[in-house]
Every structure is written in C-alpha cells, then in structure tokens.
Design a protein that fits this description.
The complex is a heterodimer of chains A (about 290) and B (about 475). Chain A has about 290 residues and is α/β, with parallel strands linked by helices. Chain A has a single domain (about 25-285), classed as Aldehyde Dehydrogenase, Chain A, domain 1. Chain A has ten helices and ten strands. In chain B, the strands form four sheets. A seven-stranded mixed sheet of chain B has the order 13-14-15-12-11-16-17, sandwiched between helices. In chain B, strands 8-7-6-9-10 form a five-stranded parallel sheet, sandwiched between helices. Chain B has a three-stranded mixed sheet with strand order 1-5-4, with no helix packed on it. Chain B is α/β, with parallel strands linked by helices and about 475 residues long. Helices cover about 40% and strands about 15% of the residues of chain B. Chain B is globular and about 65 Å long. In chain B, helix 1 crosses helix 7 (about 215-225), helix 2 (about 80-95) runs antiparallel to helix 4 and helix 3 (about 100-110) crosses helix 4. The chains are: A alpha/beta (about 290), B alpha/beta (about 475). The interface between A and B is large, with 34 and 43 residues. Strand 10 of chain A pairs parallel with strand 17 of chain B.
C-alpha cells in the first residue's frame, strides 16, 4: 500500500454566499500552536471588507423580515450541519488553539450547543425585551425589538470557534446581518464555519467571513457609513479606542471589548446590544377593556 | 391677523413665577457663584427682556459638582430603594403643586406657548417622576437580573426645547436607580432647572445628589470628559452627539444619546383628512417645530395631495401666533436669535433650491424671535429642506404613489427617530410601521409621549431609549 498524499484545502473568504479569494490576491501563513504550517489563509483587503458590507446590506431586508420562527429553523439547521462535521472542527480547533483532541472535542460540543441555544432565542427575545406599555391616555402602544442592521464583528482572538460562534450567533439570531473578521492567528475554524453556513439554509450575505489582519480590516469597517454596529470583541485596547472614535461618525452601536468567559452560558446582552426598540402608537378611542361591563 | 371673530386677550399672570435678579450654580445642595465669577443673561425670547443673570459654570465648577455627586453617591446608592422612591414621589408631588408657577416660568424662559407648558410639559414632568419613583424599589424585577447596580455619577446635558421635561427624563431614572447627577441645562433656558434645584431642597433630597450647572457648551464638554463621570446622557444635536461619542471612546463611561431627526409623516389616500391635518399641525408646529421627533417631512399620497394641502393651508391660517403667555396662543417665539438665524437661512436655501414657500398671512410681533408657520411644496428628496433638520416651524411636503415608495422615501435619511402613518387600513399601518426605520411610530396620531413608553432613535438619531423599563438600562450596570 502506497502512502497517500492528502489533499490540502485552499481556504477562501465567504462573501455574499460565495467563496472568493481575496481581491488583493494575498494570503498569509497560518500555523498551529507549535509553529507548524497549516494552510495559507486569505489576507483580506479593505475592498473585501467593503464588498462584504454590500453583501450584508443586500441580505438584511429579507433576513430581518423573515419570521423569527424561520430564523430559528435556519439556525438550528446550522447546528445540525455542525454536528455532522464535529470531527473536522475538533481537528481544526485542536490545531488552532493547541488543545488535546478531547479538550478540542469538548470545545466543539460546547460551540454546537451554543449555536442551538441561540437558535432557540429567535422567537423569544421579542417577548422578553418588548411589550405593551400602559399609556396614560386613549392609546395602544407596543415596544418591539428590531435588528440594528449590518453588524461588523471582530471575533475574539483566542477562542477561535466557541468565541466566534458566541459573538456571531446572537447577531444573526435577532435578524442582523454580519461581517465577521476571524481571529487573526487562528482563522481556519471560522473559514470552515462559512462552508457549513453555505450548506445550511442561511441566505447568502447574512454572514460574511473575512480572514486577515484584524486592525487592517476593522478600520474601514468601523468607518464605513453603511455599517450600523460593531462588536469589538477581537480588538485590543488601543485599537478598540481608535475604532470607537471612527464609529462615532455615523453613530454606530459599539459593543466594547470586555472579559468574557465563553465557556459560561451567556446572558442576552450580546443580542440586546444590536437591537433597536421601536414603539408604535395608535389611538384606541377608550382606555381599554377595563370599562367593559362583563 | 384680523378675522371676523377676534379672541379677547387671555394672558396668564406672570406674577406667579418669582424670578430673582440673579442665580448661582447648584452644587452640593447650595447655590454658589462660579469659580471664575462668570455670569450670563437669560432672556425671554418673546420680548428679548432680560429675565435674570445666571452663574456660568466652568471646568472648575464641573469638577466641584462631580466631586459633590461622588461623595453623595455612596449614601444615595446604599439607601433602600423604597426610601429613594419616597424622595422621588415627593419631588413629583411638589412639581404638581408648583406646576402653574413652573409653566409660566418655562414659557417666559423658552418662548413656548403657555398652553403647551401647562398642558403638555408640566403634566409629563410630574408623570416621569411618578413613574420612575415606582421603579426605585422594584429594580430586581426590571429584567436586568437580580440586584442591578447603579453606575455612579451621571453627567447629563440637556437642550433648550423642553428644558424641564428633558431634565425629568434624565434625572428621574438616574435617581431611581441610585445614581447621583450633575446636569447642565442649555444656556438659553437655565431657569426651570434652577427652580428644580429649589424643589430638591424642599423635598429634603440629600446634598450633592442633584447638582445643576447652568452654562455653555464648554461646561458640557468638561462634564462629558470628566474622568470621574461614569455615565453620560445627552439630548441635542447629532453633531454634538458624535463629538461626545468620540470623547467617551476608550473609556468605561456608558453613554446614551438622543439626537436629531427628520421625521416622515405619511398620509395615505384613505386617511381621515381632518384628523390627519390636525396630526400634521401637531407634528410640525408643536413647540414651534423645535422638536427632535417633529414630523418635518410630510409624505402625501399623490391622489389626495391637493385636497390635503388645501385643508392644511386653511388650518394653518387659523393658528394664532403671538404672546406665549396668552392662553389662546398656538405658536410662540423661537427660542433664540441664533436658532431664528438658522431657521431663516435654511428656509432661504430651500427657496433658492427651487422649493415653493408658503405661509399664512401672519403678523409677527416687533420684538422677540419669531418665525411664521411655513410650508414647502415642490420639494424633492435632494432638497436641503427635505434632508437637514431645521428645528423650526417649517414643513416640507413630498408625494408618493405606493406604500413601498412611501417607505423608501421615509427611510431615506441618516436619522431614524420618529415617523407617522395616517390610514384607515389596519394591515397597512402594521406593514408600514414594521418597515420604517424609526424608534417611535405614531399611527393616526403624532407627538404623543408617556413615561411608560420607550423613546429613542435608530441610526444617527442616537443610542439607547428613555422612558419605560428600557430607560432604566442606561443607568444600571448591565
């Protein structure tokens, strides 16, 4: 039996439901924790970032307008696909983060479970954070959460898969669309996640994944006038400040970097950070049912 | 304007508001002079009469006030919620007791009609304190987890269009959640905040819990950038909001911004015309149009444009502009000369760009700052008057043919604060309301406010919500 040469994968970006190479034609070497070469990842450019924003904006109307039930189904489908690729992700996470096989497997399990957790939130968050307001007058009014729009997500640098999903899933569960900048050092799980998203029912453009230098990509995203919000999880302190200043130009919603234990079950903060509240009023002509005689 | 049936003058007595010739800053429970001794004059916009001389806060005063608020924070935040609630209930009651005085004062200092201060501002101010008073001992049930903590010292900067109402929106939730406050009222309308300081004293509020610093933009900037301020709340222009967002970048300060708007008021062909006309008038001429959520862009379905505009013009001809203290006055004075200049220049630009200007026959008083209610027709989306916030009694009229076109035009703005929909068809209300990118959507009504209801913008109209349970979040560590 001859030794078989394995087939290496060319990792590509994920933009608008397609897998382009970087417009720049550049790549960078990705190594494991011991410095062994794993693959060449695309070194995305500002142009790639802008293309991703265009794709995310285009996808926003239909995704935010889909029923929450439908979004939940789609997200759950992603979890199903992830489960089938458990071994692949275990390998990639082990390489990326220098974990043993069993530890990496536990991280992947937690990540899949995290995805399922958010899949279940799509049709519940509105009941938790919205509701009717008891107005002192003959009006009916209702506050409902709505997605902010296009969210740029700087994925955490250290937690290449669990951290990534923990910041991405809440953004799209609530109907936003996302441009994700993968962990600079360990982008491969993110690029593989894109393949899962593409074969699930997530519409193209809802999630766009870029790999490359976080600072290089984050700067145009933070300054982009058609990005509505930015999650700075993967930015260090000085970069975060610079990005926050750039984000002020169109008053982006900014989620500042904060210490997060991604192993813990999250609260709803990462969802509410990218939700607006819309209050709709209508006259009732009366003060409601309280005057009913039976 | 002469008409067949003239109204007899019905002036409110101004004697009830006893304005002192000078006021200090309110720091740590005392009225004090500014550290550098600076003062400024506040004038009545309807007469240009100087009402009082007020101490002008500088950065040293900001520092003093923040220190006082910091000292007060320890005890105030440790107080059981039920006790904080009682202080807020007291304040709410005193506001009700003194509401006539405050309404007159606000009308004098701001220029808005007494009808509005008496019937809109003051009842809402009291209601806000009552509403948030009740939250103070129920924060565990507000949905932000058990035992949510206050942030610390809140630096608050408010505008001149609703001086006392904006103060209530800022101070009531801050105190209910256990924060202490340094508030800077606008330079053209400092008086009601200073009267509020006196209400705090009457209520026995501990020293330093509320500090009031009348002053200009420099004092606001010093407050926002003060390293010992934990929370910044601002209502005002989008330009200043962006500056504040830059200032707090890289700090741990929590920030909420309520900024400008260019609200669309959409009238469909099946709308009840008379009600819609009232709503349009209320949407843009309430408070002389100096309202961030004003319905300043009227979108009319093409088929009813003529009928609606005829009705609207007829209605505008009956509006009474003049002495704000007259109970029959609908339109009062513009708040300041500076604002009048801004409105005038934007309106001239509108004419120069080819929009058609119309105002009812309307005599303006000789002294004071006045601007006649104004309509622009023949407006396109590219016109300045359709894009820029004018913050005055100026309505731009655009048309549309289909609901989709109405939505697209309504959303064609960097702002996203408010919108209105007028139609008899329920499904259309819900469909259109769902698609509008605005924080408040009024259907078959406009410019309604209530302390229980979250208010705030999408896009460049700012972050966060004020009012309701949502309004607590801005002042809690969540």
């Amino acid at each position: 039996m001859s030794d078989r040469l394995n087939v290496l994968k060319t990792y590509k970006l994920y933009v608008g439901g397609k897998f382009p190479r970087s417009e720049s034609g550049r790549v960078y070497e990705v190594t494991d924790s011991k410095g062994k070469w794993l693959a060449n990842a695309p070194l995305s450019s500002r142009k790639d970032a802008r293309d991703a924003v265009v794709a995310a904006r285009k996808a926003f109307g239909a995704w935010s307008g889909a029923t929450a039930y439908n979004r939940g189904q789609v997200l759950y489908r992603v979890a199903e696909m992830l489960e089938g690729r458990r071994d692949q992700f275990t390998r990639e996470v082990a390489d990326a983060e220098g974990l043993s096989k069993s530890k990496a497997a536990a991280v992947v399990d937690a990540t899949i479970d995290r995805w399922v957790w958010y899949a279940g939130w799509t049709d519940k968050i509105a009941q938790v954070v919205g509701g009717g307001n008891p107005v002192a007058g003959p009006f009916f009014n209702l506050s409902s959460p709505e997605p902010t729009g296009v969210v740029a997500v700087l994925a955490p640098q250290e937690s290449s898969f669990l951290g990534l999903v923990s910041v991405l899933a809440p953004v799209i569960a609530t109907g936003n669309t996302a441009v994700v900048v993968a962990s600079e050092k360990a982008p491969l799980p993110a690029l593989s996640l894109a393949e899962v998203l593409a074969t699930s029912d997530v519409p193209g453009g809802v999630v766009n994944v870029l790999s490359g230098r976080t600072a290089e990509l984050a700067t145009p995203l933070a300054a982009h006038q058609d990005v509505n919000a930015i999650d700075l999880a993967g930015a260090d302190e000085s970069l975060a400040k610079e990005l926050e200043i750039a984000a002020a130009d169109n008053l982006k919603r900014v989620l500042r970097p904060q210490p997060v234990d991604y192993a813990e079950t999250p609260g709803i903060d990462r969802m509410t950070a990218f939700l607006e509240t819309k209050t709709v009023w209508h006259p009732t002509g009366s003060l409601g049912a309280s005057g009913s005689s039976y | 304007m002469a008409s067949v049936f003239e109204y007899a003058p019905a002036p409110e007595s101004r004697a009830i508001a006893d304005i002192a010739p000078s006021y200090g800053l309110f720091i740590d429970g005392e009225f004090v002079e500014a550290a550098d001794g600076k003062v400024f004059k506040t004038v009545s916009p309807s007469t240009e009469e100087v009402l009082s001389e007020v101490a002008r806060a500088g950065s040293e005063d900001v520092d003093r006030a923040v220190k006082a608020a910091r000292r007060a924070f320890e005890k105030w935040s440790a107080l059981p919620g039920a006790e904080r609630a009682k202080y807020l209930f007291r304040i709410a009651r005193i506001i009700q007791e003194r509401s006539r005085e405050l309404a007159v004062l606000e009308t004098l200092d701001n220029g808005k009609p007494i009808k509005e201060t008496r019937d809109a501002d003051l009842p809402l101010v009291a209601a806000h304190f009552f509403y948030y008073a009740g939250w103070a001992d129920k924060l565990d049930h507000a949905g932000f987890g058990a035992n949510p903590r206050p942030l610390g010292v809140a630096g608050q900067v408010i505008p001149w269009n609703f001086p006392l109402l904006m103060l209530a929106w800022k101070i009531a939730p801050a105190l209910a959640t256990g924060n202490t406050v340094v508030l800077k009222p606008a330079e053209t309308t400092p008086l009601s905040a200073l009267f509020f300081a006196d209400i705090c004293r009457q209520a026995g509020l501990p020293k330093g819990v509320v500090n009031i610093l009348p002053g200009y933009g420099d004092a606001g900037a010093a407050l926002v950038s003060h390293p010992d301020v934990n929370k910044v709340a601002f209502t005002g222009s989008t330009a200043v909001g962006k500056e504040i967002a830059r200032t707090v970048a890289g700090t741990r300060k929590k920030v909420t911004l309520e900024l400008g708007g260019k609200g669309a008021n959409i009238v469909f062909d099946d709308a009840p015309i008379d009600q819609a006309v009232e709503g349009i008038v209320n949407g843009i001429f309430f408070n002389q149009g100096q309202v961030c959520c004003a319905g300043s862009r009227l979108l009319v379905q093409e088929s009813i444009q003529e009928e609606l505009l005829d009705s609207l013009k007829r209605r505008l001809s009956t509006l009474r502009l003049g002495d704000p203290l007259d109970k029959n006055t609908d339109i009062g004075a513009i708040n300041s000369e500076e604002q009048l200049t801004r409105i005038t220049s934007l309106v001239e630009q509108g004419e120069a760009e080819g929009a058609e200007r119309w105002s009812p026959a309307c005599e303006l008083p000789e002294s004071g700052y006045w601007f006649a209610p104004t309509l622009f027709t023949n407006v396109t989306q590219a016109h300045t008057v359709a894009r820029d916030e004018i913050f005055g009694p100026v309505l731009s009229v655009l048309t549309f043919r289909t609901p989709d076109e109405a939505v697209a035009k309504a959303n064609n703005t960097p702002y996203g604060l408010s919108a209105g929909i007028w139609t008899e068809k329920g499904s259309r209300i819900l469909a259109v309301a769902g698609k509008l990118r605005a924080g408040v959507v009024w259907s078959n009504t406009f410019n309604k406010f209530d302390p229980t209801s979250p208010f705030g913008g999408y896009k460049e109209s700012g972050f966060g919500r004020e009012g309701g349970r949502h309004g607590l979040e801005a002042y809690l560590d969540v």
